[in-house]
């Protein structure tokens, strides 16, 4: 029990940990609004307030976050030229997303002209979606490399040794983390597409709610202390 409490404290001490928790509140509230709007308008209104407040809070938490993409490229550009090119596009898209998200937050809180919100939302979502596409390509490439490496290890004469067994476990653990990243990126891509090109599927409350929760919980899994 104490170990779980310690892990929760460590998780919530991270900015990403708080973001995933508040994101859960935001998209659970969105689903509640959809479920209650016809049967209990008062409760639906309160859920909507929680959704809006959570969304604005998350934007405040992400102040300055656009610099993380630049830092990632500076510290770890990638092992191969192809990976480095993909990383540039992926992180550039994420940087555009977080940078213009600041202006979206300020316009929705009334600091800037509220008419800017729609334009800032489009630019932010476009950068976000572009980044997620390239991040998914990177993750799939790394998963493919991991599978090939695992096959190579299993074919080797030392496949039964403890050292090789530990290598295989490490590859499998990395694969799970990358699959979680793909799930989160695809879910967030759907949310981004809802802003770029509104349509009945992406903009439906259930689609957005489930996508938001998939993203939040996949991120929760990846950030949870091991």
Automatic annotation (TrEMBL):
Q: Has UniProt tagged this entry with the keyword Transmembrane?
A: yes
Q: In the record, which residues are listed under signal peptide?
A: none
Q: Which domain of life is it from?
A: Eukaryota
Primary localization class, coarse: membrane
Instruction: Indicate the transmembrane segments per the record.
Output: 83-100, 120-143
Into which family does the record put it?
A: Belongs to the peroxin-11 family.
Q: Which UniProt keywords apply?
A: Membrane, Peroxisome, Peroxisome biogenesis, Transmembrane, Transmembrane helix
Cellular component annotations (GO), alphabetically ordered: peroxisomal membrane
An MF annotation (GO) of this entry: identical protein binding
Function, as annotated, reads:
Involved in peroxisomal proliferation. Promotes peroxisomal duplication, aggregation or elongation without fission.
Q: What is this protein called?
A: Peroxisomal membrane protein 11B
Q: Work out whether the entry's keyword set contains Disulfide bond.
A: no
Q: Which GO terms describe its biological process?
A: peroxisome fission; regulation of peroxisome size
Q: Where is this protein found?
A: Peroxisome membrane
What does the subunit section of this Swiss-Prot or TrEMBL entry state? Homooligomer. Interacts with ARC5 and FIS1B on peroxisomes.
Q: Note the topology in the membrane.
A: Multi-pass membrane protein
């Amino acid at each position: 029990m104490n170990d779980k409490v310690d892990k929760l404290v460590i998780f919530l001490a991270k900015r990403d940990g708080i973001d995933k928790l508040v994101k859960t509140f935001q998209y659970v509230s969105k689903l509640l609004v959809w479920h209650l709007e016809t049967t209990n308008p008062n409760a639906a209104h309160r859920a909507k307030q929680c959704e809006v407040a959570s969304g604005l809070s998350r934007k405040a938490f992400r102040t300055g976050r656009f610099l993380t993409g630049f830092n990632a490229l500076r510290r770890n550009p990638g092992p191969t030229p192809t990976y480095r090119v993909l990383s540039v596009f992926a992180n550039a898209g994420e940087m555009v997303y977080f940078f213009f998200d600041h202006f979206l937050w300020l316009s929705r809180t009334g600091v800037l002209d509220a008419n800017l919100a729609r334009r800032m939302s489009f630019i932010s979502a476009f950068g976000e979606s572009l980044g997620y596409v390239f991040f998914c390509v990177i993750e799939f490439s790394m998963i493919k490399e991991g599978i090939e490496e695992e096959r190579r290890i299993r074919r080797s004469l030392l496949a039964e040794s403890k050292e090789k067994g530990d290598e295989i476990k490490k590859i499998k653990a990395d694969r799970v983390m990358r699959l979680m990243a793909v799930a989160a990126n695809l879910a967030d891509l759907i949310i981004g597409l809802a802003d770029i090109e509104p349509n009945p599927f992406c903009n439906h409350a259930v689609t957005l709610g489930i996508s938001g929760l998939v993203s939040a919980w996949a991120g929760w899994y990846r950030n949870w202390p091991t």
